[in-house]
């Protein structure tokens, strides 16, 4: 196992690491990551100004496809939410939160498109290495505060010792995406990176992400058993099945069985949190939603006995339903789990479609109990991997 360093990516890797620094962000502002990564957009823009936009160039096409698939839905969500704010006569805080949340979501695909355009094949390793480097720095920062012995205690018991110091939500969920990708894509060529990712994920210990990864790997194994002549129809059925599961989950959480499941899983507070939000939505075709960003406004004031300092709903599916309403939710999730992957899989080879499905399954599982759509590291990782799968097929067509 040999670790090679691509000199071309050293500086951009450092930029990614600095952009996602939890330490620096805590001392500055929520827009700090975007300000750091704006350098990629500047490089992208300067190139286009100098040479123009040439859609016959695959590099340009790949960059703008990331923008098309990642930016467009959030632009529509922003417009829809602003209309909802007007119709509901919401206070100014709702408008500001909608604008802020939408900006975060809309700028990520532009940044990833710029990275794809500027670095192509190296883009996926660049983003992964940047996130890994940032977590290594977080380990060092943690050690400086609690000592080396704390790290060893955490290694012995990652769930009950220094979890608040060594657990980094957004990076943890994002790095699982890369781990799944490297395990399924070409594990023999990435042994060192896989070992590093496994160790880092052990320290971060996101249980739902771990469950999601194992389910996705198991699903990939089953996909490999499908007869080649039945692959295309099978893939289509799977995409629709993922969409149906996401929708069915909405109705399941309103069922008493959900309460029992949460209690048995030791996360009863999650049920109390979901139950507290029931006043803001109803399962009806006429429910139009509260507007994007609404949940983050009301969740800190949620009245839940025994639960302090609530920061998030930890349930992206319910959050999206509350904010987008009945029709908005179903349209966006259909786009995410059916329309977009079916458009992509029509252009990539069979193995990469299987990897795509594995990643979609992992995404769905994490949506059940967390807010991964709000993590720019996660969404950036997801987009760069999907774009890389497509780029690879263009360079090495079957």
Sequence-ordered SSE layout with sheet pairings:
Layout: H1 10-19, H2 22-27, H3 32-51, H4 58-87, H5 92-119, H6 123-146, H7 148-156, H8 163-166, H9 169-186, H10 191-204, H11 207-223, H12 231-252, H13 256-264, H14 268-276, H15 294-298, H16 316-345, H17 350-369, H18 376-395
Helix pairs in contact: 1-3, 1-6, 3-5, 4-5, 4-16, 4-18, 5-18, 6-7, 6-9, 6-18, 9-10, 9-11, 9-17, 9-18, 11-17, 12-16, 12-17, 13-14, 16-17
Protein name: O-antigen polymerase
Transmembrane segments: 30-49, 69-87, 99-119, 131-152, 164-184, 204-225, 237-254, 321-340, 352-369
Keywords: Membrane, Transmembrane, Transmembrane helix
Tell me about this structure.
The chain has helices at residues 10-19, 22-27, 32-51, 58-87, 92-119, 123-146, 148-156, 163-166, 169-186, 191-204, 207-223, 231-252, 256-264, 268-276, 294-298, 316-345, 350-369, 376-395. It has one domain. It contains 18 helices and no strands. With 398 residues, it is mainly alpha-helical. The two termini are 29 Å apart. It comes from Simiaoa sunii. This is O-antigen polymerase. Keywords: Membrane, Transmembrane, Transmembrane helix.
């Amino acid at each position: 196992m040999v670790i090679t360093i691509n000199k071309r990516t050293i500086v951009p890797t450092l930029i990614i690491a600095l952009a996602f620094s939890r330490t620096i962000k805590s001392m500055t502002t929520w827009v700090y990551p975007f300000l750091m990564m704006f350098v990629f957009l500047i490089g992208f823009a300067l190139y286009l100004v100098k040479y123009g936009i040439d859609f016959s160039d695959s590099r340009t096409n790949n960059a703008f496809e990331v923008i098309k698939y990642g930016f467009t839905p959030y632009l529509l969500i922003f417009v829809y939410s602003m209309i909802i704010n007007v119709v509901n006569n919401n206070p100014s805080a709702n408008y500001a939160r909608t604008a802020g949340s939408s900006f975060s979501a809309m700028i990520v695909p532009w940044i990833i498109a710029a990275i794809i355009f500027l670095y192509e094949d190296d883009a996926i390793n660049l983003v992964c290495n940047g996130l890994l480097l940032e977590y290594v720095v977080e380990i060092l920062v943690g050690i400086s505060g609690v000592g080396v012995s704390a790290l060893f205690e955490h290694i012995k018991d990652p769930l009950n010792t220094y979890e608040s110091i060594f657990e980094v939500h957004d990076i943890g969920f994002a790095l699982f995406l890369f781990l799944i990708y490297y395990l399924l894509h070409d594990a023999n060529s990435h042994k060192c990176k896989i070992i590093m990712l496994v160790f880092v994920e052990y320290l971060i210990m996101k249980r739902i992400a771990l469950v999601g990864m194992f389910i996705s790997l198991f699903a990939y194994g089953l996909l490999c058993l499908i007869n080649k002549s039945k692959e295309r129809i099978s893939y289509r059925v799977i995409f629709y099945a993922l969409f149906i599961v996401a929708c069915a989950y909405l109705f399941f959480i309103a069922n008493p069985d959900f309460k029992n499941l949460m209690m048995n899983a030791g996360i009863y507070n999650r049920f109390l949190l979901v139950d507290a939000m029931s006043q803001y939505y109803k399962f009806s075709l006429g429910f139009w939603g509260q507007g994007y960003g609404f949940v983050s406004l009301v969740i800190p004031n949620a009245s839940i006995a025994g639960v302090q300092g609530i920061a998030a709903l930890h349930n992206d599916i319910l959050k999206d339903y509350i904010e987008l309403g009945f029709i908005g939710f179903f349209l966006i999730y259909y786009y995410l789990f059916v329309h977009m992957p079916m458009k992509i899989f029509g252009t990539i080879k069979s193995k990469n479609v299987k990897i795509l499905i594995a990643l979609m399954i992992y995404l769905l599982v994490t949506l059940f109990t967390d807010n991964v759509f709000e993590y720019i590291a996660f969404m950036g990782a997801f987009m760069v991997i999907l774009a890389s799968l497509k780029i690879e097929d263009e360079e090495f067509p079957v």
